[in-house]
Amino acid sequence: MSGLFLDTRAGRLALYLNGDLQFDRDDEELYHQPLALVPLALVSRRAAGRKLRVLVLGGGDGLALREILKCPGVDEAHLVDHDAAVLDLARSRLADLNRGALSDARVRVHVGDARDFLSGARGFDAIVCDLTFPRDLAGAAVFTVDFFRSVRRALTPRGVIAVNAVSPELTPEAFGCIAVTLATAGLASVPYAFVLPSFVTEGYGRWGFLFASPEPITDQELDEIQFPAAARVTSADLRAGLELPHSALDRMKLSPNVRDELLYYVANGTPIAWTEPFQRHRFAATNERRESSDLIGSPGPRLTAAQAFAAWLREPAGRRSLAELLACLPLARRGQTRELVLEWSTNADSLLRGVDLRLFVDRLLERAGSLPAAWRRELSELAARVKSGIPSMRELLEGAWRVFAVFLLVLLVANLTFPDNAYAKHTGSSGSGPQLAFSDPAPSSAPFRYHVGGGPRFGYYVYDSGGREYRAQPFMFADPARGPRPLISLLALSPDLRLLETGMVSYAVPIPAYEFVVQPDRLGVLNLAGREVLALHPGPSLPGQTTQLLATQAPLLDRALADHQRWLDWTRWARGFGPGQEASSELTQLERIRAALGSARTTWMSAPAAPRLGEDRQRSMIFPGVVFDQSRQELVVIHADGTERAHSLTPPAMLTEEDRFLFWVLYYRVTSLRDARFRTVVDRWRDAYGAHLAGSG
Question: Is 66 exposed, middle or buried (0-12, 13-18, 19+ CB in 10 A)?
Fold first, then answer.
């Protein structure tokens, strides 16, 4: 849950989120009116006479939504915010301020990640991105090229988006980075800057939005915008805000935010003088159609762990929190490490109470010759301070955060250098030596964990997205061009389903002498030479389960890859050590999994489904494509095309491949599933045919 604070002291109403001001009632209209009304005014002209669909990403306080609902023509509005606590606040204590916007009949509220919602969103006339300031990796992730490409796909061809950006005055490089990111995603934008008194008081400087569209917004369109008479923002205010200092343009020609370049520009902003001459700026959409993988090959400047620490130390004390500190670290096992660090910080006062502070500072100063000058200066100031009396615990703890931050950085370096230490690593039961176990779980979704397995070519284990391990099984496939060849399992979709390196999905049930390939319209039964001997109906549930698992794995895998790449980028100096090399090999393996997953999803999206099976209460499915007819006391094989063939439980006069397969299905039922109904049948068949049941393979 986010760190929410609603300040109601002395009649004030202001919302803070993790120490950052979100709005102040006294001037919030100066923020929310242009953010919402400008895109609505533009699309109202572009889609004259048509009902409008609007999407708000973030903005859980409902204030941007309030302005949207005032606009005539809005027929449907969706609001997506991941923070249920903010939404609860909007429905209760902020309901008067947002005029009950979340309860409007035209509104649909979604609790979740904006990226997940955008994956299936289409046909919106206007999208308002009222997202929080990008202070960490999670914040930067909703300002990337991929994110804005998904926003563009959700737009109509002439739709308009508004983006809450950063300060073009204090961090012009970061503002330009967002504009260039929009351009790279195919969205032409115009910047808008304005003074929000409450933001200026907090030290945020002049603030900025970006208005963008696949079809460039013209000056004429902007000049014709008329705000409602009751609005606090006027058309003259808009025209003035569209003009930025001429000197700002050169500072904004930067790299797009592919992964987390934006954090570098946020942390290394150089303020500009807001002086004449002023002019309107434009950022044209890039015509190049490059994939993100191409962009990653030539990224812009990246924020290192040391720079992140420096930015954290420069923050005002109110925002120098444990959560912000942990965001500086490229942590593996983040949930576990957060608990450990939190325990340390909670007990910091106990540690300080047991220290002879005067003696401690004197001894430090004796050995301070090799320390940086700034550190010696701070120690001297502390020494002077303690001579007049021991500081309060609060004062000591505020200063201790700086020491604590340096301590964590040293700890990170030490643990990367010495692989025998368990911090940020995982020693699994398979293979040998330490193994990195990357995950950065969010409260709303399960993490994707993947361990690099040891052993021979097939490895000993494969893993599912939660890090649970399953013994790997070699799979033989008869390639028409290359003959029989082994395939490697890359990922366990479930205890029974494996993703193979080619994108095929195997059904890994332990039935001797056979292997199985799951497809939307069939279950292929292969012998141990990799040749298909039967094509069965996959049953009513197996295709649906496979489709769902493939879809679920894709976003988890993308996030795991982003976490791995983040680790390697921030600790690139440690790639020569064992953990760094292991992380590189794990990243390569995850990229193989993603390629196979993409191939599998393409197959499953384009292939026809199997014919539906009729219902019969006398029949029970004992294996996909094999049912037991209780009334007739016989087995029925249902082929992929829906045709059926009945088999007696009595051993047949002549053993066919289909009979042999049925025996092993029954054997599996008896031995693995403890299905006693078929024990006598298995014994009779074994007595009748013995070794012949194994087949030729």
Answer: buried
Q: How many CB atoms lie within 10 A of CB 101?
A: 28
Q: For residues 508 and 672, what is the distance between their CA atoms, to the nearest angstrom?
A: 13
Q: What is the pTM of this model?
A: 0.57
**Between 84 and 479, where is the model more confident?**
84
For 326-365, the DSSP string reads HHTS--SSHHHHHHHHHHHHHTHHHHHHTS-HHHHHHHHH
Q: What is the CATH number of the domain that holds 85?
A: 3.40.50.150
Same domain flag for 371 and 508: no
Q: Catalytic amino acids?
A: 130
Residues 231 and 112 in one domain: yes
Q: Are residues 367 and 469 in the same domain?
A: no
Q: Which of 29-38, 125-134, 212-221, 508-517 has the lowest mean pLDDT?
A: 508-517
The length of the chain in residues reads: 697
Based on the fold, state whether residues 281 and 169 are members of the same structural domain. Answer: yes
- Cis? peptide before 197, omega within 30° of 0: no
3-state secondary structure of 543: helix
d(CA 232, CA 67): 12
Alpha helix positions (H), 208-267: 219-223, 235-241, 248-251, 261-267
Residue 235 domain flag:
yes
Domain tally for the chain? Answer: 4
Name the most confidently modeled range: 372-376, 385-389, 422-426, 588-592. 588-592
Domain that holds residue 484: 461-606
- 257 and 170 within one domain: yes
